[in-house]
Amino acid sequence: MDEDLTQLWPVAGLRVVSGDLELRWPDDDLMVTVAREAGRGIHAPDAMPFTIPWSRGDCTTVSRNVLQYLWGQRSALTVDSWCLELAVLVDGLPIGLQSARSARFPVTRTAETGSWLGQRHQGNGVGTRMRVLVLHLLFEGFGAREATSGAFLDNGPSNAVSTKLGYDRNGLVTVAREGVAAQQWRYRMDRERWDARPEWMRPVLTLHGVEPVREQLGIP
């Protein structure tokens, strides 16, 4: 990553690395690769894991939706409201996105995570591992007190990841999904539960660029 860019925009240097798995802030070239992966398909045609159905359409439409969204999140980042969209790479190959978003984090110390993987890369445990990495970033890197997540009742894989990692179920909410009411499970991981996590959730990993990012996001 360009040093001039990371000096002015520290989130551009943010990385979380554990063995073959990496979360990395995407530059434009990486964004294109990630967007094309989304265009190849994320879920079955009769499924919709997202509140906003951005993954509907032909491959070009979906890829453009990803680019537009990522550019928007990049420009909207402030101390009071931010969304870190990190590319997920396995052995250097981009296969999806892992996000963490928060409002007034220095006060709330709470962030929400979300993610997707290209359909051809699902079912091999990467979803669980990348969630552990983003939780490590939030709790150990940023000093979070709480991390939340959510998934529609019919999104088995996402619900399974949250359950496996030991989140507390935090109720049901009803939202509109493609014009129809649908329910989501809400999940909560607090600092105490994170600190008591089992050994398999403590992989060897390295955080890169966290201190400058904390300064940019106003995290003391």
Provide the helix percentage: 25-40%
CATH architecture of the domain at 3-138 and 204-216: 3-Layer(aba) Sandwich
State the CATH superfamily name of the domain at 3-138 and 204-216: Gcn5-related N-acetyltransferase (GNAT)
Outline type: globular
The quaternary structure here is: single chain
Low-confidence stretches: none
The CA-CA distance between the termini, in Å, is: 25 Å
Largest sheet: 9 strands, mixed
Please report the first level of CATH classification, the CATH class of the domain at 3-138 and 204-216: Alpha Beta
**Percent strand:** 25-35%
Q: Gyration radius, to the nearest Å?
A: 17 Å
Order of helices and strands: HEEHHEEHEHEHEEHEH
Q: Per CATH, what is the topology of the domain at 3-138 and 204-216?
A: Aminopeptidase
Count of separate DSSP helical elements: 8
| Mean pLDDT value | 98
Structural class: alpha+beta
Describe the protein.
The protein has 220 residues and is α+β, with helices and mostly antiparallel strands. The protein has a domain of 149 residues: 3-Layer(aba) Sandwich (Aminopeptidase). 35% of the residues lie in helices and 31% in strands. The protein is built from 8 helices and 9 strands. Strands 7-8-6-5-4-3-2-1-9 form a 9-stranded mixed sheet, with helices on both faces. Helix 2 packs antiparallel against helix 3. The relative contact order is 0.17. The model has no long low-confidence stretch (mean pLDDT 98).
Provide key terms for this protein:
220 residues; alpha+beta; Aminopeptidase; 9-stranded mixed sheet; 8 helices; 9 strands; 35% helix
